[in-house]
Amino acid sequence: MKYMLIRKADTDTENGVMPSQSLLQAMGEYNERLQQAGVLESGQGLTPSREGCRVEFKDGETMVTDGPFAESKELIAGYTMLNVRSKEEAIEWARQRPPEDAGKGLCLELRRVYEMADFEPGAGLDTHVKLTEKMARLPSGLNIHLSFQGNCREALTFYAEVFGGDLEPFFTHGESPDKSPFPASWNDKILNGSVNLGGRRLMGADMPESAYSRPQGAMIQLDYLDPALAGDIFEELADGGNVIMPFDQTFWAYRFGMVTDRFGIGWMINCTDKPE
Question: Could you tell me if 132 and 118 are in contact, meaning their C-beta atoms sit under 8 angstroms apart?
């Protein structure tokens, strides 16, 4: 079930007081714990109400009122969407909110997101049910598994640095409870390793020459909004590798390039829209 953890506004947030570095650090670590636990759906902070407006409907007319709005305690300064198993679990995560965010006082509010079972059956609900059933067929994760010839540890460490991911614990051939068909010299090679990229994973394993197949007919495609960052990543992947298509403008994208890195893995780096 999903809960919205609402951070109520206060005098500081309505006055546009930006968070300190210590608060940013604490909130970043808190969000990272949420992400690693698999309960973080999304989260954002909101600008003061003076930068927003209200759109009201009355007697067939629409009225737009610019902020700011009074009663800051009734306003929202930010939110976090949690995907948890119970209200109690949502409360426990709310309790772990960093004390740095308390300041002169802090009010959090938890609201459960409606599910289809909460509504009365009918034709209108059927439309939403069909969409929900369609979405239910989507996998909860889509990960990529790569094979390497003994340098999986080096490759995944490199990818973690390039893409800003987190290396997860390696599991070696020597640690397998099953009798390995490989010689003892392979005990420190990787049987299973992964880089966590915001809940998506690049997985990998070392395979001996007799079982290894070089990737063919497949490439990993990555989208970026910032063309400068995308270009830097392309160059890092190209270092020691082979550029198939230079990172440049195309008729379908502002910037696009193809490269095979030094580990033999193919990449497509894509930046569709020109920045404003």
Answer: no
Q: Copy the structure tokens of residue 81.
A: 């969407």
Taking the CA atoms of 34, 36, 39 and 42 in sequence, report the sign of the dihedral they define.
Answer: positive
DSSP character at residue 229: H
SS3 content of the chain, % helix, strand, coil (to 5): 30, 30, 40
Separation of alpha carbons 249 and 274, rounded Å: 10
- CA dist 268 and 45 (Å) reads 32
What is the Cα 167 distance to its own chain's centre?
A: 15
Q: Is residue 227 helix, strand or coil?
A: helix
Phi and psi at residue 214, in whole multiples of 5°?
A: -65, 135
**Mean pLDDT in residue range 59-82:** 89
Q: Residue 166: which of 175, 157, 176 has the closest Cα?
A: 157
pTM for the whole structure? 0.59
Of the pLDDT bands very low, low, confident and very high (cuts 50, 70, 90), residue 116 is confident
CA distance linking residue 162 with residue 156, whole number of Å = 10
- Are residues 250 and 185 in contact, defined by beta-carbon separation less than 8 angstroms? no
Mean pLDDT for the stretch of residues 176-201: 87
| Mean pLDDT lowest among 18-22, 129-133, 164-168, 216-220 | 129-133
Selection from 15-29, 113-127, 155-169 with the highest mean pLDDT = 155-169
d(CA 216, CA 266): 9
Nearest CA to 199 among 21, 31, 36?
36
Q: Which residues partner with 270 through β-bridges?
A: 223, 256
